[in-house]
Every structure is written in structure tokens, then in C-alpha cells.
Amino acid sequence: MPVYEFRCQDCGRLVRLFMSFAEYDTAVPTCPYCQSQHLKRRISRVALGKSEASRMDAMMDDSALADLDENDPRSIGRFMRQMSSEMGEDMGDEFNEVVGRLESGESPESIEESMPDLGADDPLA
Ligand SMILES: [Zn+2]
């Protein structure tokens, strides 16, 4: 079932709704936080359909994780680059910058500190 993302025009929150295409045609999307119906459709970079989601699961199970060392920024960077190429998606400049810095050995904590806006518009990230 596809995920639709909306920005609530009243409380400003990001709202994710699971709906079938038929429902999307007829339903009036409602903000779960303030019950507003003033939702504006938002195009998501990360919305995953079912096939992509199970592809992610499959990747998580395979050898990519086996040689992931969470304490080694270079290993994390390599892993993230592999994930993005498997998904065949351009993840954007921010993502590429993070991966590049991880691969040069910078710690995730220090990258996060220097990029306070990282994922700021996505509370589920
Ligand atoms: Zn709202």
C-alpha cells in the first residue's frame, strides 16, 4: 500500500498516511495530530512501496550487514553507499556529503553536529 505524505497546513506537522489508490481518490486526508483537513500533498524522497520495503529487508539480511562495523565510520559509509546504489535512487547532496565524510573516517556524531538540519523535516528519520 502506498504511503502518502502531507504537510498539515494548520499544525505544520509531517503526516504519513497509508492509503490504496482508490482511497486516495475518495478519502479526505485528516491530520492525526489536530484533525485538520488542510493537508498539502508532499512528494517524499523516501516513501517506500511494498516492493522496495521488502527489498530493504532482503538487503538487511544479506552479507552487507555481515561486514558492517558500526564503530568504523568508513564501514558505515561503504554500507550506506551500497544501500543507495541498490535502491537506484539519487539520495541527494546531503546524503552524498554524509557518506563521503564517513568514508574519510569522520565520526557520525561529528557529522551530525556540523549538520544540524540533517533530517530535520522528517521526524521518523
Ligand atoms: Zn495538523
Topology:
Layout: E1 3-8, E2 14-18, H1 21-26, E3 39-42, H2 50-61, H3 63-66, H4 73-87, H5 93-103, H6 108-114
Antiparallel strand pairs: 1-2, 1-3
Overview of this structure, please?
The protein has 125 residues and is of the alpha+beta class. The protein folds into 2 domains: 3-42; 50-114, no CATH class. The protein contains 6 helices and 3 strands; from the N terminus they run ββαβααααα. The chain has a 3-stranded antiparallel sheet, with no helix packed on it. Helix 4 (73-87) runs antiparallel to helix 5 (93-103). The longest helix is centred in the middle third of the chain and has 15 residues, at 73-87. The relative contact order is 0.13. The mean pLDDT is 78. The structure holds zinc ion. Zinc ion is lined by residues 8, 10-11, 13, 31, 33-34, 36.
- Main pleated sheet: 3 strands, antiparallel
Return Rg in Å: 17 Å
User: How many angstroms separate the termini?
Assistant: 20 Å
Mean of residue pLDDT values: 78
In short:
The chain has 6 helices and 3 strands; from the N terminus they run ββαβααααα. The protein is an alpha+beta fold.
Descriptive key words:
three-stranded antiparallel β-sheet, 2 domains, 3 strands, 125 residues, alpha+beta, binds zinc ion, 44% helix
